[in-house]
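User: Here's a structure from my thesis project, written as structure tokens. My advisor, Dr. K., wants to see whether a designed sequence matches the one we expressed. Can you design one independently, without my sequence as a hint?
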């Protein structure tokens, strides 16, 4: 699994960004024994709180992809995000739309390693954790990071999304 193309693309993107984990060490994608399709499952597998899981959610924002990295402890308020961004509509993207814009499957979408950059919002609720875990390109892969690093490596915008 470590050799999966998506996992490699995410690790290369992390390396190219000089991404760091909560201890300051280079962020490394880790492959778990089983798929973790939900924040709860990821938190249980990692032994962390669900709030430390950065859910990567792709939305269709007036036909363009929008990646919202939100704490696993809550849901995105799509009406609020659409209003804040001046969008006419913000809807959950289809699996095909997600794969087209990220090259990754739903349940494994990483914050980076996409074919081209995707506009990204990073949930301010994640700032409350010293260590955050994000998906690594497939449902079994994750990597540790921090809120500041997520903002930096994704060129994301801090936002209240819940």
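Assistant: Designed independently from the structure alone:
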């Amino acid at each position: 699994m470590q050799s999966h193309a998506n996992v490699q693309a995410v690790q290369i993107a992390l390396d190219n960004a000089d991404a760091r984990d909560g201890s300051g060490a280079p962020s490394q994608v880790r492959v778990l024994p089983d798929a973790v399709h939900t924040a709860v499952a990821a938190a249980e597998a990692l032994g962390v709180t669900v709030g430390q899981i950065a859910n990567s959610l792709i939305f269709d924002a007036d036909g363009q992809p929008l990646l919202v990295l939100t704490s696993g402890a809550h849901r995105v308020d799509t009406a609020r995000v659409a209003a804040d961004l001046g969008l006419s509509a913000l809807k959950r993207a289809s699996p095909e739309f997600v794969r087209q814009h990220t090259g990754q499957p739903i349940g494994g979408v990483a914050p980076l390693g996409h074919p081209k950059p995707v506009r990204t919002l990073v949930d301010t609720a994640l700032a409350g954790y010293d260590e955050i875990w994000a998906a690594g390109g497939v449902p079994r892969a994750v990597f540790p990071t921090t809120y500041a690093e997520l903002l930096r490596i994704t060129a994301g915008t801090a936002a209240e999304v819940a």
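When you compare it with your expressed construct, this may help: The chain has one domain: 5-159.
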